[in-house]
Amino acid sequence: MLVARSLDDFRAHPAGSYVAGRHWLYFAIDWTVFGYALWGTPAPQDLRALVHVLELELDREPHAAVVDVANVDALSQEGFEVLAAYVMQHADRLAHVVTRTAMIRSTGLNGAIASGFFDIVGSPFPVSFCDDLISAFSHLEHPRPRESAEALRLAIVTASGISEPLRELRQYLEANLATHSLASAARTMGVSSRTLQRRLGEHRTSFIEEAQEARVRVAERLLLRSDAPVTQIAIEVGCASSQHFSDLFRRRRGEAPSTFRARRRGI
Q: What is the pLDDT of residue 131?
């Protein structure tokens, strides 16, 4: 089990603990494996907070690293640049501190972006890509890969506030934006519709709320990573019209899709 600590306490006693922000955590399984995880849609300020912690950690003894970006929904160009600047600025020190890294990535476009990160910025250390946490710790030849993977998974669930069933539902919804249903989601998750509704109620959300949020999350990625017109994105996320999409986006994000795109791209 990993325990949450303040940054000062973590600096003094890192083994078996983590320090976390809104969309990230930095952890130490023990003195041989450190790393970080990202989830959701981290804003540039979230990544700057993570980088601040990473910079403080450059005085550690050589160790392996696990980087989990499988649960990242979207990363802006500015956010990408924050991480890239950290790696390029500290490349020499990272080459000494990090012996090798196992990165867990998602499938699809997000996974492709993660895979290409070090192709763009250069890698100061060997990087291998894995499909899950157990594979990552096994690849690093950690003596307790399952135990370490479970400890990190639980820490991410705690820090992010997203339980495993809710994460599973969100993955289902993003893959079935136009065809989802409560019954189909419940079957996919191996529970009854009533059980799924109860679990969502425990998280103070609902199937309709999660379905709407899934459309907006996918739309955010499309707005940031493509120049597709809003009307096309509306269709791709399963909205009946561009007006319906714009109303939904504005209701959940407080601004129009075009405004979001321009602000996050710095246009």
A: 83
